[in-house]
């Protein structure tokens, strides 16, 4: 079994501007704890999230994220080839929109805990 704290907090906020967050695309069916377990050899995980076959891992340092990207990009995990890169503002925005929210916020993307901006896409 997995340690409960290995995956860190569940990420819910939108773009952070931090270069220590990675996106893992083409995920098989897995939990955020399984994804975190895959990433923990590369550094301290502060948070994680899985949305629509994409995972986000927030490391404590940019160098940890870089190590994870270099080691995990294009590996096979549960019969799927992972695509791992830095999480850009756009990749996080798309996932936030797909998560959905209250009907009043459907046209907005969360930028920080208390700040939203209109999504023109």
- Classify the helix fraction into a percent range: 10-25%
- β-strand percent reads 25-35%
Q: Which structural class should the secondary elements be placed in?
A: alpha+beta
Looking at CATH, the homologous superfamily of one domain is: RRM (RNA recognition motif) domain
Distance between the termini: 41 Å
CATH architecture of one domain: 2-Layer Sandwich
What can you see in these coordinates?
The chain has 121 residues and is an alpha+beta fold. It has a domain at 18-100: RRM (RNA recognition motif) domain (Alpha-Beta Plaits, 2-Layer Sandwich), CATH 3.30.70.330. The protein is built from 3 helices and 9 strands, in the order E-E-H-E-E-H-E-E-E-H-E-E. It has helices spanning 32-39, 62-72, 89-99, and strands spanning 9-10, 21-25, 45-51, 54-59, 76-77, 80-81, 83-86, 108-112, 115-118. The strands form 3 sheets. It has a 5-stranded mixed sheet with strand order 1-3-4-2-7, with helices on both faces. The longest helix has 11 residues, at 62-72. The termini are far apart. Residues 99-121 have low confidence and may be disordered.
Question: Briefly, what is this?
Answer:
This protein is an alpha+beta fold and 121 residues long. Helices cover 25% and strands 31% of the residues.
SSE topology:
Elements: E1 9-10, E2 21-25, H1 32-39, E3 45-51, E4 54-59, H2 62-72, E5 76-77, E6 80-81, E7 83-86, H3 89-99, E8 108-112, E9 115-118
Keywords: RNA-binding
InterPro entries: Nucleotide-bd_a/b_plait_sf, RBD_domain_sf, RRM_dom
Protein name: GD16538
């Amino acid at each position: 079994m997995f340690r409960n704290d290995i995956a860190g907090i569940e990420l819910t906020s939108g773009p952070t501007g931090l270069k220590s967050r990675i996106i893992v695309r083409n995920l098989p069916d897995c939990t955020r704890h399984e994804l975190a377990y895959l990433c923990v050899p590369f550094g301290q995980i502060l948070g994680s999230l899985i949305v629509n076959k994409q995972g986000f891992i927030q490391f404590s340092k940019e160098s940890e994220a870089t190590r994870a990207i270099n080691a995990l990009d294009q590996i096979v995990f549960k019969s799927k080839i992972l695509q791992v890169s830095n999480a850009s503002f756009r990749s996080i925005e798309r996932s936030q929109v797909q998560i959905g929210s209250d009907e009043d916020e459907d046209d907005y993307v969360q930028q920080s805990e208390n700040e939203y901006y209109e999504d023109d896409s």
